[in-house]
Specification:
Layout: E1 14-19, E2 22-27, H1 31-36, H2 43-54, H3 60-73, E3 80-83, E4 86-89, E5 93-95, E6 100-103, E7 106-109, H4 122-129, H5 144-152, E8 155-158, E9 164-166, H6 168-176
Antiparallel strand pairs: 1-2, 3-4, 5-8, 6-7, 8-9
Length: 181
């Protein structure tokens, strides 16, 4: 007796998102994605594998935007929320990261930290991401702590009334409905 295999070539829904000059296709998660993540690994490793399977060569900030769109498209967070009269939309998320700063007549250039890294404090962030010769950031003016915030706040979203929420954690809280106004 010959076994027949039913070929269910279903078309999975896809959302197309423009991130800078890149067009990224956000999928509904399927069995293929489940198989990718089936091995027990750290969450950050699994997220990198998942995002890499969706679109290769994304910057850390672009990867975070893909992550938020992926969660919204798969029903894990809302696509749109209103908080204190401000309406925020996932489609309005943008890259807000700053990697170049000027102080004392000198430019300071930084690289973007990897997503889901363990950089814990301002000095660690500045030291690990700085692209120039080693500097003692502790001896610099206190405002360099703002540089660390601007380096790690990779994405933001602005409401219809101009209120901005920055950083992955705050954005996820906002679209999960757990951010308090």
């Amino acid at each position: 007796m010959k076994r027949q295999i039913l070929d269910l070539k279903s078309i999975m829904p896809i959302k197309t998102v423009k991130i800078g000059r890149k067009t990224v296709k956000i999928p509904k998660l399927s069995l293929r994605h489940h198989k990718l993540l089936n091995t027990v690994r750290d969450v950050d490793v699994n997220m990198k594998i998942l995002i890499g399977s969706i679109h290769k060569g994304l910057t850390p900030a672009e990867s975070l935007i893909v992550c938020v769109h992926l969660m919204a498209f798969n029903g894990r967070i809302k696509n749109e929320v209103t908080l204190d009269g401000n309406t925020f939309k996932v489609d309005d998320i943008f890259i807000s990261q700053k990697l170049k700063f000027h102080s004392g007549g000198k430019d300071y250039l930084f690289k973007s930290p990897e997503i889901f890294n363990n950089l814990t404090d301002a000095e660690n962030i500045l030291t690990e991401c700085y692209l120039g010769e080693p500097i003692d950031f502790n001896s610099m003016p206190a405002y360099v702590i703002n540089w660390a915030r601007d380096i790690t706040t990779m994405i933001s979203v602005t409401s219809d009334k101009g209120l901005t929420v920055g950083g992955l954690a705050a954005i996820l809280e906002l679209f999960e409905g757990t951010l308090n106004g």
